[in-house]
User: What shape does this take?
Amino acid sequence: MAEKIVDKLFRGDMLHVASLLTPKSFQLIYLDPPFATGREQLGSKKGLAYDDRWVGDLDTYLPWLKERLLAVYDLLTDDGSLVLHLDWRASHYARVILDEIFGRQGFINEIIWHYTGGGRSKTRFSCKHDTLLWYSRSRRPVFNIDAVRVPYKKTSGYAKAGIVAASGRHYLPDPLGTPVDDVWEIPIINPMATERVGYPTQKPLKLLTRLIEGLTNPGDLVGDFCCGSGTTLVVAQSLGRHWVGSDISAAAVKCAATRLRKECQIEGDITADCAD
Ligand SMILES: C[S@@+](CC[C@H](N)C(=O)[O-])C[C@H]1O[C@@H](n2cnc3c(N)ncnc32)[C@H](O)[C@@H]1O
Assistant: This one.
């Protein structure tokens, strides 16, 4: 049997990269593919870009996405998780596709990542959220609720004194905070943020930290096969998880490798080309 690949960053189509990897070895696969925006995504630095234009629009995009979701399904462990990150353009279609692949019982959560900042629409309500679809092969995937608790609201009476039920039982607040719900308020990376590397559509470290801490344990393997600037890989490494990343864009792979070296002090050759 081929050796299990870990802590490696591939340049190539995730479809081909997936075929190199060990089935049932990933505890979490986070996918943040192009959103079908119809735009060329340009970074703040020359060369940092990828193309999100689709001839035929969603009619081309959705079969492309489905083929790649099918390719990674077998890579998940029995209690592992896939989180697909999209926005209003395709998340509703993707949910139907994921229901087909995982079965409807594979759906765990639809997480809304709400953010502010950026421009405001004058013709409709401003679109200020992304959708993260969490699916698993298991009805009880790994979920570390205590690792991702958030502080109680300052106005919460429960947080101060707990609550006494009709039965007389006294429920006390958890010193770690309250379980986080499925609407996440996390700021986008603003132009002055220190974590900003200039790659278009770079996601915040805080978003990936919550997913990785909540859905995996130390030592687990995390995959991000549209890794862009490498946010997932940096967080996985920092939290003591193994990781595999890939991206079709050479600029993305260069950016992610630089981040892993700088932010995680990884040395040696971590990149490889995956022939298309
Ligand atoms: C939304 S960006 C990912 C951003 C990333 N999460 C970050 O924090 O920087 C989508 C990425 O998917 C990559 N991509 C597009 N098609 C791909 C494919 N077939 N295989 C692998 N990566 C692909 C693009 O090059 C782009 O970097």
Observations:
- The longest strand covers residues 76-86.
- The helical segments are 14-18, 58-73, 91-102, 157-161, 205-215, 231-238, 250-264.
- The pocket of S-adenosylmethionine is lined by residues 13-14, 32-34, 50, 199, 201-203, 225-226, 228-229, 231, 246-249, 252 (CB under 6 Å).
